[in-house]
């Protein structure tokens, strides 16, 4: 992920609360990948970790980060085993075991508000900056008390406020409180795209938060895994032209439109000429109708749901797909877009601001509410052999790390 020892970097107290909460839930997605990228980047640099583990804010040694990266990648050989206490509490799942083990490994512990952390943390890591890139652990009492560590906070999107219909019940109000807290108490605010920066500034105005920290844009990097066809399910039919939709199966990803498009294709094409649709991602929330349609898919049909594929298996699919399909209603960035474009795979997507900024004229832009043009383009593309486009040069992670680090250094200099 581009660890460069020549890149200046502040000493970070890095929040890994989200990554811990995702253990045991399959391959990392979106925000989780950003947190893992930062954690990997920090491995050879002075830093500490912090995580909210139940009622405790635990400051962890750097060695805990290496363990977290292994466990998040599915390597559980060194994961803590269930103790007698775990069994007594009937909490033997991976996350529960890890949380209790990490509390025992903490070099400093504090209550949920973080009272008392400043003195011991600054003794261990003088001048530490609190860095949060995971949209978690942003409660107002905690961030207010962390002012001594000049919080730097990465905002990925404002979708829970802009589109509450696409979020779980209660998430919009929770995110509103977290965003207000970040904007009031953050010393540095970063976003992953210009579109998200505009949204953050719009909401800051609506909240009536005067002034505040500068908001910088730090586009995230794209990590291209090596394709590994051997990791794909052995019964997967790759003989026919196929298309891939990649991402958590949740309402804003708009998988229903793709299912509608394939219903239209089934009315026009014979079974032998139907293209495949591989829906790759774990199931999310508030999407019962789409889940029911997926559950009703006939075995051996052209549409297949694939969960828990490795990054290498996904890379193998994208490399061979006739196109990546992304009919999202809203996105803060859209990593599947850059993953496909970097491999020379055609992209059909909705013309969201962040997506248009990423791909420009390299994608075919289609409406999010009409399956007919999607079906028409899919049929046309599938009628010819796969066309490999000129791969797009996509940024790695070093620019993202550098932008946020520079912003933190600038803010620290301005305060001194």
What general outline do the C-alpha atoms trace? globular
| Low-pLDDT windows of residues | 1-5
Number of domains in the coordinates?
2
**Strand arrangement, major sheet:** 4-3-2-1-5-6-7-8
Strand content: 5-15%
How far the N terminus sits from the C terminus, by CA atoms, comes to 32 Å
What do you see in this structure?
This protein has helices at residues 17-21, 30-41, 62-72, 84-89, 94-105, 118-124, 140-145, 159-162, 171-185, 194-207, 255-268, 288-295, 311-320, 335-342, 353-359, 371-382, 398-415, and strands spanning 12-15, 47-53, 56-60, 108-111, 129-132, 152-155, 188-191, 215-217, 242-246, 276-280, 303-306, 323-326, 347-349, 364-365. Helix content is 41%, strand content 14%. By secondary structure, the chain is α/β, with parallel strands linked by helices. It has 2 domains: 12-221 and 397-415; 229-382, Glycogen Phosphorylase B (Rossmann fold, 3-Layer(aba) Sandwich), CATH 3.40.50.2000. The radius of gyration is 22 Å and the shape is globular. The strands form 2 sheets. The protein has an 8-stranded mixed sheet, with helices on both faces. The protein has a 6-stranded parallel sheet with strand order 11-10-9-12-13-14, sandwiched between helices.
